Amino acid sequence: MGAIMSCHILFFQAEHKNVSKLCLDARYNRRNETNRKIKMLLAAFFLCRKLMLVFACFKLTRQNT
Q1: Total domain count for the chain?
Q2: Burial state string for 34-48 with b = 16 or more CB within 10 A and e = fewer than 16
Q3: What is the pLDDT of residues 1-48, one digit of tens each?
Q4: DSSP character at residue 21
């Protein structure tokens, strides 16, 4: 449970940082549609990174056997 919670916190910190970097703060806070789209994009990015890590680990375990 702790690992999931820390991942969730890191995700929202990254989201806030990137929204601020793109100067979308006001729009993000006012429009739910913008908020939802940004969250979907960031989630897709994190999922892709995690899948790449899983595939790399799988490849390493296959090479070692």
Answers
A1: 1
A2: ebeebeeebeeeeee
A3: 455 556 667 777 777 777 777 777 776 667 777 677 777 777 777 676
A4: H
